[in-house]
Amino acid sequence: MRAGAALLVAGAALASAAASAEPRRLVPTIQPLGLVVRELGGDRVGVSVLVPPGASPHIFEPQPSDVESLVAARLIIEVGGGLDGWVHPLLAAASAKPERLTLLDLPGLEPLPAAPGGHVDAGPHDAAHRLDPHAWLDPIRVRDVLVPALAAKLAALDPPGGAAYAASRDRFVARLTALDAEIRATLADHGRSFLAFHGAWRYFAKRYDLTEVGVIEEAPGEEPTPRELGALARRARDARVSAILIEPQLSPRIAQMLARDLGVALVTVDPSGDPSDPARASYTGLMLWNAQAFARALEGAAR
Ligand SMILES: [Zn+2]
User: Fold this and answer.
1) Residue 19 Cα to ligand 1 middle (Å)
2) CATH 3.40.50.1980 is held by the domain 19-182
């Protein structure tokens, strides 16, 4: 028993030594970036995501242990736009100098502006913080910009894997093209107007011709005043919104109150994904799951 336990401990130490020597250790800040890079890199890469499943990057508080996962990182994959600015002091604390890939900075991404009056995180790069960070929720931006940029970056970090990454990129691009068609089919013949808990869905809405009637909180934690809630309820009635979109990472309390007032349902959408739920454990799976949730929420809404 004792010897077995000692072996287990030795095994764990070896495993952690192997992990810290991992030459292709990638650290995405948020789960959906982790889903994309896992799907692309397969078993050639080691991926550890900073924001755990079930947590929101908007209100994430890094722990000292997060510094450790950065020490061995070769590549940080971040969103930008103030969403995951908390990674910069972590990098400084880890005195790590990994390469960085920032979604909103990628050529061709064409970020949307942040909503006027929306929450702006304090930070050194003020202009960047006026962008809407949720670009990963547009499968076409992921297909045309993020996936090719990541494949090129992985090939540069790991030249012997170049052909594997290129093949993986091409298969992924084909899946994303099919996903786009499937989302369009899923949302066809539905209403177009939706009311979301927070302002995550503008890239998705723009791509699929949906109309955001309003959001309860522009960024999580910014609770609306009663007056703002009243105005939102009027807009929701005018648009015949038949459901309010909530998210697993955020408290539904205010949405529940508003849904009672309006006599509408709550429908869960998920901007992040969750590796422990098979339906949301890949990027394409997650986005189809979201499209189906939108379709339920758009039943009966104004066209
Ligand atoms: Zn968000």
Assistant:
1) 31
2) yes
